[in-house]
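haha ok so turns out i had the wrong file open the whole time. this is the CORRECT one, sorry everyone. sequence first:
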Amino acid sequence: MEMRQLEHLVAVLEVGSIGKAAQQLGLTQPALTQSLRRLEHGLDVALLERSPQGVAPTEAGRALAARARSILLEAQHAHAEVDAVVGRMRGRLAIGCGPSLAVSLVPVAVARVLARYPQIAVTVHEGTSDLMMAELERGTIDLVVGTGPENFAQRGLHADLLMRDAMVIAARPEHPLARQRSVTLSDTLAYPWIVPAVGDFLRGRIEAAFCGAGLSPPVPTVQTNSGSVIRGLLLSGDFLSFLPKRLVKGANQGSALAAVRVSGSGWTRKVHVISRAASVNRPGRLFVSLLRRLCSDEVASDQI
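then structure:
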């Protein structure tokens, strides 16, 4: 079994086609087919089921592919560690994050990493917690920065708490409720609400906030998990939505969004950095270190 054979197997299963995988790898289709057959012969087991529609993994193929992704990722990490020892910071870093973190902390931390080591290749994936955690478990990303159900240990994952993120009801500064000193949660139901899709962790917290006050949750006018869409809608009309306080703080002094003063409506969510193991590659450790510094700065500025 050779490293390149594992790369070939993973590439084929990612696209579901030997022909497409050969193009991506810069090989001829016969050469890729021969490599896969040598791998199957060496293991004495069929790894792929071939059909006119493409290829699919056998049970053995699925098991090997899962292990192969981990092996290939560890090989990348080893390469990065060697580069670091000899004074070169290279390698790849794939990060997953939620929508609100994709417009604030994560891009700033990425920019600071690349300012120090521009040869690192960084990929950032944005999505819901469930999607990002699934990608992490598959080995397609190295770290997840996000919130959500804290069942990390049960999933065999390692998580470190970065910060506690206060959530508030956000609106445009000209919103009728933004100018009032005292607003009830019931008052907000008279306005259109933007909420995440059904099943999202944040959607459940929003519904719990209203139910806890003896109210029915708002009927959403718009459902979206996109931070940029939420922000755009809030600025365009009398919409309301929950956002992290750090994205709207100071809005009453002239910045883009305002926090509606609704007593007892907010809550605090935990932001974690999550990985498959306690140890990550050198670029990942640098990213986490800078991210922690940013989070500390956020907390300090929020207390001023």
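The chain has three domains: 3-67, 72-163+270-302, 165-268.
again sry for the mixup
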